[in-house]
Amino acid sequence: MSDLTLAVDIGGTKFAAGLVEPDGRVVAAERVATPRGGDAETLWETLTGLLDRLEPPPGVAGVGIGCGGPMTWPAGEVSPLNMGGWRGFPLRERLAARFPGIPVRIHNDAICLAVAEHWRGAGRGSAAMLGMVVSTGVGGGLILGGRIVDGGTGNAGHVGHVVVDPGGPPCGCGGNGCLEAVARGPGLAAWALAQGWSPGGAGSPGRTGSPGRARSPEDPGGEPSGQDGELYREEGTATARRLAADAAAGDPIALAAMTRAGRALGIAIASAVNLCDLDLVTIGGGLSQAGGLLFGPLEEALREHTRMGFAQRVRVVPAALGQDAGLVGAAALVIAGDRYWSPGP
Amino acid sequence: MSDLTLAVDIGGTKFAAGLVEPDGRVVAAERVATPRGGDAETLWETLTGLLDRLEPPPGVAGVGIGCGGPMTWPAGEVSPLNMGGWRGFPLRERLAARFPGIPVRIHNDAICLAVAEHWRGAGRGSAAMLGMVVSTGVGGGLILGGRIVDGGTGNAGHVGHVVVDPGGPPCGCGGNGCLEAVARGPGLAAWALAQGWSPGGAGSPGRTGSPGRARSPEDPGGEPSGQDGELYREEGTATARRLAADAAAGDPIALAAMTRAGRALGIAIASAVNLCDLDLVTIGGGLSQAGGLLFGPLEEALREHTRMGFAQRVRVVPAALGQDAGLVGAAALVIAGDRYWSPGP
């Protein structure tokens, strides 16, 4: 019996698999791009090919899996939003058949990231924390009493669907005014474009990002560059990165967009802090790298809406773990199951 | 050793004490009005007088206390908002000195009400519930994984300070746009008065509550009756009851006020459901007795903002327990401490 745990991290852009030591160190990892438009078996073969390359030793202690939601839980039939080939795919069961006789456990990928931060990252020692990811979507996981909160169906932590603006923009969930609708990268970029933002403008030679550049929504201004336009249509996060860069360069519309996202984050976090008596919030994901442009307005709105004594102690910090975080959190479902796994084996 | 538990329920309008059987039945109870403006020892003597009248048998199994917040927890130094005589009063310690050698446990009164509904009321069997009180304030308690959630400092459950309208009215907590600022009885009545509501108008002979009665905020209309005005200044809940009655009689401003409160409740509940994956919400307190006038708009807003599959299962129901609920919940801290008490003895 090895003391290594096999960790699997299934996302819309990449699949990753790794071997994790009992202390959380990732000692080997393999990655592959998620096949675009692959059917169920193509996706499965991509995963098994990845596992073959990793060559896990005989007798790993268990298998931990993080996967994009939604899924039935703890059964682990997955239907990741951005992976049409898997709809009700029995991912946990298929992996359990391949690795018989050991625990095979699965959770939402955002929950695995929160678990990773609590176990080995910026959230160590917190009794009550929310681990967030702000990127193409906005997700999270809740740790209360030092243990993962599953909620009734394993879906606790959906902070992206806390309502921040009841009359706000439509959300992918079917509602409107959710944090995710306002603060996800693509939503943010769309808002900025509607306000007249011209991607890359502020950073271009001879352009200074002065307030005079602001355009009314009626004035289309220049077309976005082909590259940015395409990336925006494809994914949106590249455009959000451009938006953050333009904000850093002083573009007033880009700055307003970052402020809008930061305030929405602060309001949603305040609601979560007041409801769940949190002491810590960690924020990871692409947009979190915007630094003060995002965290400044976030802190301002958060402090406006957390005035009760207990709520004022909350700290919001960037996530500490890098690209291995998903693997670390998935492994923790097995290695530290006493804190991060509630259902039976 | 008796198998009875002594339960104490300390509120801004009354003190109650009771003896509770292991199955949650209250077999004896005494009540007394909270002394207005009493200093610390006056309040304490009121409580001890109440306990003397109750005559608990020797050797009760423990003492459970529900008290208005805030308090340090689990130490139980209480500073109830509406009881100025107690500021940092060591209520738990004083009761522990009077009942030595047995568990003496304290929690926020709203949390005790949630515990009562989960243990013996409308929330039995729920794995993930929010128990709410909507009255002069809006409070609550969270039960996740079938256990009470304390949060880091015993303050989890403050659903009244989930933000429902970031640009909304100021809240007693110092923030603005909190659910409580919109939906608490006095806030609701104040809003209706500002819209031109004339308390009791719709129910008076010869008045029909037609839309023509609506007045602009600039038009003061008739003064509220002395009684209602006094009650509003004193407490606000009596006026909220009048508001509900007027809404039931068809007064359009009163109806709009109930709709406004119901929608705010629905939005805050949706945020809590999405974040915590709840299957049930119970609502007690005076305003909850408005029935469909409140629950109709609540359900409408809730369903608009809970569109993810897991969130759609949530049910919102009236609380089932009556005036003894506070005693039942306080007793449960001792009797069912495995589920409703996390700190040590």
From TrEMBL, chains A, B:
Residue ranges of the region described as Disordered: 199-231
A Pfam family assignment: ROK
Superkingdom as given in the UniProt entry: Bacteria
Family classification: Belongs to the ROK (NagC/XylR) family.
Protein name: ROK family protein
UniProt source species: Microbispora cellulosiformans
